[in-house]
Write a structure and sequence with these properties.
Elements (H helix, E strand, L loop, with lengths): L19 H20 L3 E7 L1 H4 L9 E7 L2 H10 L3 E2 L9 E5 L2 E6 L2 H17 L4 H13 L7
Length: about 150
């Protein structure tokens, strides 16, 4: 295994290779390695975002969101589609493309300004520990799109 990636799991009970804990850990590690391989090319920046990152305590019943800045949006999205990620909907005029596989959501953009604003909104929500989802949406809408509070 590459020293570049660490999965951070151990089986403290010393489970056998057929134990459910071991199998789940291996399955998760396999998925993560596939993602890392997918992300090796055309990814300029990548960060975990979303409520699992911004909220303390972090919710456990939400998806894992990953923000990606790529230099080849179309190529990268097609590679993700071939790897099993599905489009989550159409965003007319949006600066990003959204894909999903299982509990993993990819927010993919080729616009550095959008990436930076998204990271700023994430930082604000995390710094203030904004737990209410509607409040987080308001922060993101304001920073990403310049929307005033209470305005569509």
């Amino acid at each position: 295994m590459s020293e570049r990636y660490s999965f951070g799991w151990t089986d403290p009970k010393g489970g056998s290779m057929t134990s459910p804990t071991y199998k789940a850990a291996i399955d998760e590690a396999t998925v993560q390695m596939e993602l890392f391989t997918l992300f090796e090319e055309n990814v300029l920046l990548m960060a975990y975002v979303g409520s699992r990152v911004t909220c303390v305590p972090a919710p456990t019943d939400t998806d894992e969101d990953v923000l990606i800045l790529t230099d080849r949006l179309g190529t990268f999205v097609r590679r993700c589609n071939r790897s099993g990620f599905k489009d989550t909907g159409s965003y007319t005029g949006a600066a990003f493309h959204s894909l999903r596989q299982g509990e993993i959501n990819l927010i993919i953009t080729d616009e550095k300004e959008f990436y930076d604003k998204f990271m700023l909104a994430t930082h604000v929500c995390k710094s203030l520990n904004v737990l209410d989802k509607q409040h987080r949406i308001t922060v993101f809408q304001s920073i990403l799109y310049g929307k005033a509070y209470g305005k569509p």
